[in-house]
Amino acid sequence: MTYENLDAKLVNALLGDGRASLRSLAEDLDVSVTTVSNHLKDLEDQGIIDGYTPKVDYDALGYDVTAIIQLKVEGNALPDVTESLRSHDQMISVYEVTGDYDIIAVGKFADTDGMNQGIKTLLNDPDIKESNTSVVLNAASEHEQFELDIEAE
C-alpha cells in the first residue's frame, strides 16, 4: 500500500466526481476507506478542499448575459468596494488586479436590462472613479478546474 501522491490523487479523483463515496475513492486509489477519510479531513482542515458544490449551468437557468466589469477605485476604498461586489449575488468572481484597473468582476445576468441596472447600481458608489464593461459573446471555457500533476512512481 503506497501513500505517495495520495492527496493529489484524491483531489484529482474528486475533480472527476465530487460526489464519489469514500468507498469508491478507496477502491480507485487502492487504499482503505479510513485512509481516504483521514486524508480528506486533512485536506479540508488545511483549506485545500473548500466545500463540495454542483457545477451550475447559469445559461440553462436563463442567466445568459455575462459581463466583465473593470473598475478604477479610490486607493483606500479598494477593500470596501471589493467586499461590496462580493455581496452581490450575481457577481460570480471578483479580483483585485494590477494594471489599468483595480478590480475585475464577472457577473451573470438574465438579460441586458438586468445587467444595465446592476452596473448602474455599482456605479452609484462614489469610490468608483471609472468603469469599463465588456459583454461576453461566447464562453469558450468557463469554470474549469485542472488536475494536479502527479509525479511518476
Tell me about this structure.
This protein has 153 residues and is of the alpha+beta class. The protein has helices at residues 6-16, 22-29, 33-45, 78-86, 112-123, and strands at 65-73, 91-96, 103-109, 128-135. Strands 2-3-1-4 form a four-stranded antiparallel sheet, with helices on one face. A hairpin with a 6-residue loop joins strand 2 and strand 3 (103-109). The mean pLDDT is 91.
Give a brief outline of the structure:
The protein is an alpha+beta fold and 153 residues long. The chain has five helices and four strands. Strand 2 and strand 3 form a beta hairpin.
Features of this protein?
four-stranded antiparallel beta sheet; 5 helices; elongated; 153 residues
**Distinct helical segment count:** 5
Q: If you compute it from the alpha carbons, what radius of gyration comes out, rounded to the nearest whole angstrom?
A: 20 Å
Shape: elongated
How much helical structure, as a percent, in the residues?
25-40%
Q: State the strand order across the main sheet.
A: 2-3-1-4
By DSSP, the count of extended strands is 4
Overall residue-averaged pLDDT value: 91
Largest sheet: 4 strands, antiparallel
Task: Give the helices and strands as they follow along the chain.
Answer: HHHEHEEHE
Strand portion: 15-25%
As residue ranges, the low-confidence spans are none
* Structure class: alpha+beta
Question: How far apart lie the N and C ends?
Answer: 13 Å
